[in-house]
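The following block was generated as part of the benchmark described in Methods. Ligand: tryptophan.
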Amino acid sequence: MTTEAAAADAKDGKKKKRVVVTPPCPPGVSTGYLLLRGAVGAVVGVSMLETSCSVMQPTFLKEKPVLSGKFSLSVGKKLGVGELELPEDDEARDELLTGIEKEANRCIQNGVAFSAVTTTKEAAESLLGSTVATKPPLGVFNQMHMKTKPEDAVTLAHVDQWVLAIPPSLPYATAAALDKIVVERGNQNSDIACGKKSRKDAQITIKFHVTLKQPDAPVVEASTDNTIAETSTQILCQNKVRSPEGQRLVQAAAAQQQKAQEAATKETTTPTEEETPKDEEMVVNAWEVKGKIDYTKLVKEFGSQLLTEELLQKLQDVAKGRVPRLHRFLRRNMFFSHRDLHTLLDQMQQHDGTVYLYTGRGPSSDSMHLGHLIPFLFTRWLQQAFDCPLVIQMTDDEKFLFKGVYDEQDGDNLNHFANLTIENARDIIACGFDYDKTFLFSDLDYVGRMYPNIVRIWKAVTTNTVNGIFGFDGSSNIGKIAFPAIQAAPSFASSFPTVLQADHTSKRMCLIPCAIDQDPYFRMTRDVAHKLVAKPKSNEKPHGLNGKPALIHSKFFPPLQGATGKMSSSDTNSAIFLTDTPEEIERKIKEHAFSGGRETKKEQEELGANLEIDVSYQWLRFFLEDDELLDKIGKDYGSGSGEYWSTNKVKAKLIEVLQELVAEHQQRRAKITDEEVRKWMTERSLVG
Ligand code: TRP
């Protein structure tokens, strides 16, 4: 029994036997439901005629802790009934869900209007056009309407992308009452089932939650004049993608197919390399991190070096007197790999090597999460340890090129990414850098100063090289292909004529702390570096690294759901955000942190937890400063005895640590004014 049926029955004033009264659907949830149903159709490009939809499953209708619901939409008997073929691999499915989520949120942002009419089922059918009426099942009506009589009342809502039958009173006036819709992922949540679990029909299940902008927005009254524009119903009766997100996915699918075809032709002509199926799932490149990461193998593949005890000792010697000891990320091997760090430290020890640090961030969401903090916390420590200048690149240009959108009506969203730069800058500044030695810049703003070096890099790198490294092809926009040079440029001191008082004769060496997925950029950079520094005069010492930047690489910070891959901002439950409240932190860790503990108390006491896969323990390794305590927690939990014997105890400790860390961050961040951000982002000399 569903809310909708209950509402219809209540209106009829009669109670059928099968009726079990469920709580009424919270208004925000039904608004989200309407938008998402429209979004599914618009993204997949499926006609209203081909689909049938379950009303929201009552067990999933929740108000607390968040407004949430779940429904399934059957989009036909076979795969690819709409314009967009439903994908078969998990990653593409995930992307489709993201597309649907984006489409629904686009409607919110655009303030899409809801209109509704109440009429009879018969009239509704003729209103929708004869084609609709002759071809059930109709996406418009739910299963319950199949059984109702022609003269029974029905309310139709028209939500831009969709027309559908809904409960008699509409929950909200406009989509603007909602703040955001989130499509939930992972087990038991949203899913696209086709060709799997031996399902033949293609079914999309959406589990979602919403947040409200106007909790008490007025409820809309449905009108009784029969007006639903016929043109829109005609459009809705075609198998046609009706949204920008859907079009993007269609294009991506076409490109993928073309690539696959090309690869297939290649395969028949060139012998395949020896295959190692076991490692196949690991993918690490500048755009994608997935599968179980084998860091030793990665270092081998990338050609970087593992950090050694000896090297750490040398680092400690160089930093002596400025920091009490090695950062916990080094003590615990979170930063684990490098390029040319030996040489860099040697030069520094010989007192004739000056250095600067370079790191960056692609501003892709307004709330950063804990994973984003890792490189910055470490960079701050390095700045203290070396007492040197630091430049931080905000690649708003990159994020626009890769994730930006163009909309016929609203234009593009380049400014959105420029604004994210400022928001993210606040979080970065709150990490505690030294103002006198730190320059933060937005590419959109500063790129002109680096332009001579960018042009030199463009000249030195071929399209084939870039495509090979980053997987671009002829269908990629030209900005993507040009971008790697822009991330490369800050590796050269001469890109900062004022900030570092440098030109091409500068001997100042660059060290880049970054996550290992950024390495491809800098491999490319290092290959052409010699062309960007001036040849030394005969009596002069050359640049200590022949112009190349040195690197120090971190591992990935694991998502809450499990220690593979990296955390994503699009799945709110996979991450702790720097804006989360203490309650949210507690809830997420309790509900979502993947546990390596055993099923029963008895087993836990006998076997102890598997620390490798236990996210709470792994996160403590990143954030708990106290070595002794960490050691004790590991021993207790790993053996199932002592104070920290169970998952609950370990989670409680983690919650405490993170609540404190996040609260302190928020306090620091709150004090940073726009004026302050502007100062950090003003070009000024950081040296002598
Ligand atoms: N491309 C990086 C990202 O998407 C941002 C970045 C630019 C960066 N320059 C960097 C990261 C240097 C590390 C080091 O987040």
